[in-house]
Specification:
With 85 residues, the protein is of the alpha/beta class. It has one domain (6-84). The protein has helices at 30-39, 54-63, 74-84, and strands spanning 6-10, 24-25, 28-29, 47-51, 66-69. The strands form two sheets. Strands 1-4-5 form a three-stranded parallel sheet, sandwiched between helices. A two-stranded antiparallel sheet has the order 2-3. The chain is globular, with a radius of gyration of 13 Å.
């Protein structure tokens, strides 16, 4: 099995649909579908959720995943990735 690192952005500030990433889709928050997909290919320590949402963080604690706060633009995301290596 290859070892992948997943970075999943969960932005709270959507202009058209506020908090869309934590809205329920099939009885769980939208972003958790991406997390479930990632879990098929790697372990929890290789899944990082980039978020500025306090509500999303509550779900992440229950999922035992790492969140990186305030990394919602491309440049900051790249900087965070480089720190992981």
């Amino acid at each position: 099995m290859k070892n992948y690192i997943y970075l999943i952005p969960v932005r709270a500030g959507s202009k058209r649909v506020p908090n869309k990433n934590i809205l329920d889709l099939c009885s769980k928050p939208l972003f958790t579908h991406s997390v479930d997909f990632a879990k098929k290919f790697t372990s929890n320590e290789n899944i990082y959720v980039l978020t500025d949402s306090e509500k999303a963080k509550k779900f992440l604690v229950n999922l035992m995943l790492t969140f990186l706060k305030g990394l919602m633009n491309f440049q900051k995301t790249i900087q965070a990735c480089l720190k992981l290596f």
